[in-house]
Design goal:
With 433 residues, the protein is an alpha+beta fold. It contains ten helices and 20 strands. The strands form four sheets. It has a six-stranded antiparallel beta barrel. The protein has a two-stranded antiparallel ribbon with strand order 1-18. It has a two-stranded parallel ribbon with strand order 2-3. β9 and β10 form a beta hairpin. This is Oxysterol-binding protein.
């Protein structure tokens, strides 16, 4: 059974103002094929290919979330107050059964918004869709404040081909110190890429996460190139009580001078019951305000006036009824670590699905997962020591480092899918686990 997000009622007044709530205008991840995909485009569309049978994907995790009643997080965090926690090894009981590479893939769950944007002629209308897409990347954090993804091993990769959504996604851990993950997603309608690195600090009762890096989206049909940086995340009640996540800061989305969007993720206040709010405006190339956006980052976004007429742009997909028993995963997340039919013969051995400690956690073997996590991390440490002994630097297989606008960034070499066609047998990939 599927239920709606718990706080959608807070937006009902805005919904009532909409003269016709047309679902065709709203992006819901309903696992259905979006009809506005490019017609006649060639290329691979998943295991079945375009026009073939869609891949069968699992609908439930194999095991519910383990009980953490006897676990004391304070024993770990008390020695690291004010420090960057990205460099601190955490026990597997704090993890969810996904890697940070797979979490990056979750950011394209609502790619239908980019498909819709590709078929709009007005650049400001396209910006509205792209802005909603940027906001939608945060929805998973609302349902999963208690656990973190696995830190990927250097050289770890992840791919997902979604023939129903029309995209091919791949990611690689390109650096260990500092930890940097790079991803690239391509579709007939858009290209999405970023290199993600975070810094985090524990302040006693809360933990702040500071993302570093630029998110890029191009829409070739219109020559668009959108860029933005992520806002700050904060996990509250880390040591006790009901944990919850706040997102706050300014997000500016640009598109080569054609138009821009300035969004404010409002920081929650102790003096107000309002949480999770986002609002902002779209501006044309002359800097004139064109339209207003508002909503919440975990439920829905609207375009129009908050006290007048407004149109829905994006609404979060409903959650499975028992999601609280399964790490807070939605249907998209449930499928990320699954093996689809015919997939095993095509994946490289470095794919996150093969990571043993993560798989053991997913299957409920938490006592076996802990020593396996230490074993995998020890392999990484030994490999690093050997490179240092030989005076060799690490070179990622599928991404390369570039300097853009005076800053370091990682971009795809464009070689992943060609090597996939040969089963990666023409590459010497590292042994990670």
């Amino acid at each position: 059974m599927i239920v709606n997000p718990p706080h959608l009622s807070t937006l009902l007044p805005a919904l009532k103002k909409v003269s016709s709530f047309n679902k065709d205008r709203v992006s819901l991840d309903n696992e259905a094929l979006v009809e506005i995909r490019e017609e006649g485009e060639g290329g691979e569309r998943g295991e079945g290919g375009r026009g073939g049978q869609l891949a069968q994907r699992r609908t439930k995790l194999p095991c519910p979330t383990p009980d953490m009643a006897d676990f004391s997080l304070w024993t770990i965090l008390r020695k690291n107050i004010g420090k960057d926690l990205s460099r601190v090894s955490m026990p597997v009981s704090l993890n969810e059964p996904l890697s940070a590479l797979q979490r990056l893939c979750e950011e394209v769950q609502y790619c239908e918004l980019l498909d819709q944007a590709a078929h709009l002629d007005d650049p400001c209308d396209r910006m509205v869709k792209v802005a909603a897409f940027a906001v939608s990347a945060y929805v998973t954090a609302f349902h999963r404040p208690a656990r973190k993804p696995f830190n990927p091993i250097l050289g770890e990769t992840y791919e997902w081909v979604r023939e129903d959504k029309g995209f091919k996604f791949m990611a690689e851990q390109v650096s260990h110190h500092p930890p940097i993950a790079a991803c690239h997603c391509e579709s007939p309608n858009f290209t999405f890429w970023q290199d993600a690195r975070i810094k985090s600090k524990f302040w006693g009762k809360s933990m702040e996460v500071f993302p570093v890096g630029t998110v890029n989206v191009t829409i070739p049909r219109h020559g668009d190139h959108y860029e933005w940086e992520k806002v700050t995340s904060c996990i509250h009640n880390v040591l006790g009580g009901q944990r919850w996540v706040d997102q706050y800061g300014q997000m500016t989305i640009t598109n080569r001078g054609k138009c821009s969007c300035k969004l404010t993720f409002v920081k929650a206040s102790y003096w107000s019951s309002k949480k999770y709010e986002v609002h902002g405006d779209v501006y044309n190339g002359d800097g004139e305000k064109v339209c207003h956006l508002f909503g919440t980052w975990h439920e829905a976004m609207f375009c129009g006036e908050e006290d007048g007429d407004a149109s829905p742009v994006w609404q979060a997909a409903p959650m499975p009824e028992d999601s609280d028993q399964y790490y807070g995963f939605n249907q998209f997340a449930i499928q990320l670590n699954g093996f689809e039919e015919g997939m095993r013969d095509k994946l490289p051995p470095t794919d996150s699905r093969y990571r043993p400690d993560q798989r053991l956690l997913e299957e409920g073997y938490i006592e076996q997962a802990e020593p396996e996590k230490h074993r995998v991390e020890q392999i990484q440490r030994q490999a690093r020591a050997e490179r240092e002994r030989l005076g060799k630097d690490w070179s990622p297989t599928f991404f390369r480092k570039e300097m853009r606008k005076g800053e370091e960034c990682w971009v795809s070499r464009g070689n992943y899918w060609s090597h996939r066609g040969t089963g990666f047998t023409d590459l010497s990939l590292p042994t990670l686990w």
